[in-house]
Write the structure tokens for this entry.
Amino acid sequence: MRLVEAIRRSEATGPTAMFLVLLAVVIALKGGRYSLFDAQNLAANVLPLALVGLGQYFVILVRGIDLSLGPVMSVSSCLAAVLFPYGAVPAIAAAIAGGVAAGIGNGLLVAWLDLSPVIVTLATMSVWQGVSLVVLATPGGTIPAGLQMALTAATVVVPVPILLLIATALFGAWVMSTRLGLHLRAIGGDAGAAEASGVRVRRQRFAAYALAGTLAALGGLYSAIATSAGSPIIGDSYILPSIAAVVLGGVPLIGGRGSPVGVVMGALTLNIIGSLLYFANLSDFYQSLINGVILIAVVAAAALRSWVWRAVPA
Amino acid sequence: MSDVPAETRPGRSGVLGLGAGLVAPATSLVVIALMFLGCDLLIPGFVSLGNVMRIAELAGFLGVVAIGETLVILTGGIDLSIAWVVTGAGCVFTAVSGGATSMLVPALAAALAVGFVAGLANGLGIARLGISPIVMTLGMNNIMQGLTLLYTNGTPTGGTPPVIKTLATGYAGPVPVLVLAWAALAAVVIVALRLGRGGRKLLGVGENPLVSRLSGIRNERVITAAYLCSGLAAALTGVLYAGFSGASFLGMGDQFVLPAIAAVVLGGTSIFGGSGGYGGTIIGAFFLTVLTTILAVVNLSAGVRDIVYGLVIVAALLLNRLSMRAAQ
């Protein structure tokens, strides 16, 4: 009974149910055949979005937004692809360091210098797009085949991408269980009240942006490894989906609520809608159209629901 | 909007709320003058009538799309959908007209209809359903991208009638026709914002939606109208830019998003709405166009240009912030 209660109260239940229903549809469309290999592919495809979505989640939690996370992914993907010939350690370190630096920059400008997150991250978006072009002008570079195999392959029991996806969700859940997580929620709920009760609002808001940059870098790094190439434009296609994953994960854009597991489910949902397009035999041109419609529809549905609730006296 | 906690809203500064709107443009004017002089040292003869007019012409495209962005930001919102509204309208315009003067009116109507529908949808979503402006317009940008790709099947076709080419690239004596048209539009916008009833309502909604509602203004209508204007301004820019380039192309609107928003904010309009105006945006558009021209002249790679452009905007935002603080 306790478990039932926990599921009923969890903020991740809705997004998880939505993902499972869509997964069931895909399995039905595949004639009931869904192997571990399919699941492994799904996880490998969704992992970059799950990582950058989790980063966007921390920022949205404190009522911010980060439009530069996509280009940050491009930077780390390019750095990795260019530096792997010099060894895995410098490549991975540089890719992550790029994301940390980007996050710190955004955090400084938004949290400490009080600039609006939309316009700051639009401007830094241009900066990071430029950096990735300087690092790697056209998609390419070198990724060791061994690493690609290792991080996208099956193991004896559970395939690596699935483990990494679970690790991403667990990492998010862990952050939210720490004092930082509590403070981020408090700031999103009411920054003034949080400040009054001793939360260092600026420092924690800064931390949210820094964390977001780091997670975006990991997403870019994984996408470079999984596709065995770096790309200076790979991140552009993640700008809207990173926000859509958060919204589909049941997180309101006014911050303060929502769960990281829900965000990972939101990323999975978005990805599986993409594969439904494939079954419907629709051209790729529909992908961006449908992403836009989903984003607006989910937010509009939430708005309508709160309207109805207000209209009906509790 | 109502999401913004009261304590983070900057108050109106200066007499008649003009303070914040004037200090920043004054700074930018000085900066623009310095930029021109610096360029003249680097490249002797940079400051010539022809060059200044050329920059004014380029600033005109940005200036037109920034009309909509100014109105939207004055309500406390933002429009991120202009990239693909510009492109979509441009592609529809060239495809419908096919370069024939006889098709000018239907093509113009079709292109403006694209902007009208996108802007109206943005406005209704934001004002009636309470969807966050960032999400609504970002989603609309993707929708317009998808629709444009489907409409053009990946390759825009057609051409621009001579009238639009003249409007976008012609000269009346030493002055580009586009600059004259822009000046006329700008005069209308500035007068409407300062003296018109609509302008007062717009500023009122942006400054304090509650007070505005209590004083009998229908906020939803004002906000919807602002996004509608933004859609139309973006569509008009698409038409003009197609005329300038001689054709429409995918991604032709991408270059306007950051500059349009930056021009408004650097021009002294508060990103929280309620204070500012189009005069500052014009100066912001000039500042950014001079910057683009300099970056093109000094022959940097595309990547380095993006980096410098972004960093200069961040620096300008910080300067702007400091000068506004000093004014308060």
Notes: Residues 1-22 of chain B have pLDDT under 50 and may be disordered. The radius of gyration of chain B is 19 Å. Chain B touches chain A through 48 residues (CB under 8 Å). The longest helix of chain B spans residues 219-245.
